[in-house]
Amino acid sequence: MLTKEELPPCPVATCFQLFGNKWKIYIIQQLIDHPMGFNALHRSIPGISQKVLSSNLKEMDAAGLITRTVIPETPIRTEYALSELGHSLMPIIDSLVEWGTDYQQLVRNS
Amino acid sequence: MLTKEELPPCPVATCFQLFGNKWKIYIIQQLIDHPMGFNALHRSIPGISQKVLSSNLKEMDAAGLITRTVIPETPIRTEYALSELGHSLMPIIDSLVEWGTDYQQLVRNS
DNA sequence: TTAGCCAGTCACCAAAAGGTAAGTAGTATC
DNA sequence: GATACTACTTACCTTTTGGTGACTGGCTAA
Q1: What is the pLDDT of residues B87-104, one digit of tens each?
Q2: pLDDT at residue B73 in the model
Q3: Using N-to-C axis directions, what is the helix angle for A24-33 and A90-108, rounded to 10°?
Q4: Which of residues 9-38 of A touch B (CB under 8 A)?
Q5: What is the rounded distance in angstroms from the CA atom of residue A28 to the CA atom of residue B70?
Q6: What are phi and psi of B67, to 5 degrees?
Q7: Do A108 and B4 form a contact (C-beta atoms < 8 A)?
Q8: pTM, 2 dp
């Protein structure tokens, strides 16, 4: 979770701060179905660098959108999963996908 | 409208390209209730520079989200208004405002 | 004729975001 | 002992985005 000091006054700005960059929505989409490890996430999101994936995961963990669990199997693994808060973004993602798909149709038919 | 070449394959990336920056959602929110001129918009969005407002308006016009009408009154004015496509973003904006407000409550009560 | 409002543009700079490639460290397998 | 897989970090660089302040140019009103 952000602290009270980091919280922007505008609700929309709050959203943008939490998941309004190039990659975070993609990370969330990957984690919807099942938790994933770092390398699996890295492979499943074409174009993202390890550095940016790492920093985005940290921010999303700090914001409470995902959870990070170290699993002491052999080999030791780290599992990233959507938190309840992360899952509550589903309606927004669905509406973005819907609107974006409609717009793509509009462009392709023009 | 974007051209077919500029269109990203992913619907969510399409959304981000069209209104996923710091200011465009604010511009849309200002134009929901009534059309506005350039200076009125500039005054109503604290912190935005004329340069960035100008370039954002151009991009949103090109994308079909807003319309730009020059009104030959005296003094001559320019009116920016939401297009039908722009209005179709309302459900997304509403869900962003709702989620952001909930998150703010969560932070403030923690 | 000076001032002010409208709607911007331009040149320059700063900050944020992202990309690249290499390195670290632990464990396990060949 | 070499290789590979886990999960990252670090230094450096480029690109993108945004901000500043001055300036243009048409029009109007005192």
Answers
A1: 999 999 999 999 999 999
A2: 78
A3: 110
A4: 10-16, 18, 20, 22, 25-26, 29
A5: 43
A6: -120, 150
A7: yes
A8: 0.93
